[in-house]
Amino acid sequence: MTTDKEVLIKVEGLEKKFDNLEVLKGIDLEIDKGDVIVIIGASGSGKSTFLRCLNLLEEPTGGKILFEGTDITDPQVDINLHRQKMGMVFQQFNLFPHMTVLQNMVIGPIRLLKKSRKEAEENAMALLEQVGLSDRYDAYPSQLSGGQKQRVAIVRALCMNPDMLLFDEPTSALDPEMVGEVLDVMKKLARNGMTMAVVTHEMGFAREVGTQVIFIDEGVIVEQNKPDEFFDNPQSPRLRDFLSKVL
Amino acid sequence: MEQFFKDFGESFYNNLIYEDRWLQLLEGLGLTLLIALLATALGLALGFIVAIIRSSYDMNIKGKKKKGFGVFVMKVLNVICNIYITVIRGTPVLIQVMIMYFIIFGEAQNGTLAAILSFGINSGAYVAEIVRSGIMSIDKGQFEASRSIGFNYRSTMMLIILPQALKNVLPALGNEFIVLLKETSVAGYAATHELTYVGNLIRSRTYEAFFPLVSVAVIYLVLVIILSWLLKMLERRLRNSDH
User: Fold this and answer.
1) What DSSP line would sit under B198-217, residue for residue?
2) Which residues have C-beta within 8 Å of that of residue B242, sequence separation ≥ 6?
3) CA of B215, closest CA in chain A: separation in Å?
4) What residues does A213 pair with on adjacent strands?
5) By the 8 A CB rule, do B165 and B54 touch?
6) Chain A residues closer than 8 Å to B167 by CB
7) What is the DSSP letter of B101?
């Protein structure tokens, strides 16, 4: 996809301990611009924790995360500025229920990027149009279906014009018939060159748009490969075992 | 029967009309409203500050091995807030009013101000716990979503958490306002001529209890009914997004 490689995020020896429980035991990973990294693994393997460490929603207890050249684990760094460039989409959507769809989308750009309301709203409406929800701008989140909520949540992240998006099991809380509409939006994003890190159980998605698939087990990356190799020719027994259960 | 109506009318006249006693009641009502209103404002301000300190401490510092000056300040503030809530909730409001008036104000002899301060400080402790419960009731995902967009802790509180928390606790807060309004009836102990004090004063002049006390009761009742109605309107407005 991209010819010239530009490293967006570099993770070195990332560790996370909750009290005495070691969840991440030293993870190294490089994500280039335009990469779609799909992270899979059993529940409790540390894959979500890893993703949440990338924007410091979980504070790592060791290692470094270089995002666009800055070590964001350094306490001196203003993490809020970096988070603006790293959108996140959650399993439970986490839309703000006291705001309409449009308000959800413009609050960040207006307050943080200091855009005018008009500019922010126009941009938000254009993005809503792309996910087929422009007629729902005035609705409250409680009036939307799960799939619609998640599409709005993706647009909310996009409104900040991020350099990268993190997806934490974006389709796991959806009814089966709504998974497709969310995956379609994500695929479109991937094809348009958005850098993404996606924790998911959707193997079809991983195979179709992933540039790299990584398998995390017991807090370490057990295997990392291009999707075809990863799924057709898994090397480690643990991955083979995992794939045999989910495919 | 005729005699009864005659007595009734005479009693009404003596207790409410003679020497402009209705006017005294009205002035008492004004003072009651003044105390309740300013105490509510003070209670809300105090309560929000204490609630934010306590819940910020619970969410960010409690059980974590953080160090630094900011953490130390938060720990001290949290201890102060806990002592405040314990002492205020643990002692009768009447005693608090009297301590404020006779000990803290001492020579100053300003009963109304003493009443406003003590009811405000008293209400603050209850408001703090109500608001804190509201903050704690908001899903953690709301914090995370807001922080992931890039909002700092303060903006997250002001824009995302408090508006939702407030909506959730509005009925409980309304209840607290109603209690506060009626509690001001003990402000007479601080030599304040509020509604209850005036009613009791009239009773002591006329040696008749019925009209002064029932009038006072009816006035409180009407106030509370109006207040409840206002709160209901506010709740309905805030509930817009629930559908």
Assistant:
1) HHHHHHHHHS--HHHHHHHH
2) A140, A142
3) 43
4) A38, A225
5) no
6) 98
7) I
- Among B142, B159, B164, select the one facing A107 at the smallest CB separation: B159
**Contact indicator for A89, A165 with CB cutoff of 8 Å:** yes
From the number of C-beta atoms within 10 Å of its C-beta (0-12, 13-18, 19+), residue B236 rates as exposed
**A91/chain B closest Cα distance in angstroms:** 10
Of B142, B150, B160, the CB nearest to A83: B150
Put simply, whether A142 touches B (Cβ < 8 Å) is yes
Neighbour order of strands in the sheet with A212-217: A86-89, A164-168, A195-199, A36-40, A212-217, A220-225
CA distance linking residue A242 with residue A107, whole number of Å? 41
Amino acid at B101: Y
C-alpha to C-alpha distance for B169 and A109, rounded to whole angstroms: 30
Nearest residue of chain A to residue B148 (CA atoms) = A83
Q: How far is CA B68 from CA A75, B65, B75, in A?
A: 12, 10, 11
Give the neighbor-by-neighbor strand order of the sheet with A70-71.
A21-32, A7-18, A62-67, A70-71
Rounded to two decimals, the pTM is: 0.86
Question: According to DSSP H, which parts of chain A are helical?
Answer: 47-54, 79-83, 101-111, 117-130, 146-158, 176-191, 203-209, 227-232, 237-246
Are residues B242 and A142, on separate chains, in Cβ contact within 8 Å? Answer: yes
Residue of B nearest to A79 (CA): B150
* Chain A interface disruption, residue of B59, B148, B235, B241, most A CBs within 10 A: B148
The verdict on A81 touching B (C-beta cutoff 8 Å) is yes
Q: What is the pLDDT along chain B (243 residues), one digit of tens a residue?
A: 788 888 888 888 777 787 788 888 899 999 999 999 999 999 999 999 999 999 999 888 887 777 788 889 999 999 999 999 999 999 999 999 999 999 998 877 889 999 999 999 999 999 999 999 999 999 999 999 999 999 999 999 999 999 999 999 999 999 999 999 999 999 999 889 999 999 999 899 888 888 889 999 999 999 999 999 999 999 888 876 665
Task: Say whether residue A87 is in contact with chain B using an 8 A CB cutoff.
Answer: yes
B9 shares contact with chain A (CB less than 8 Å): no
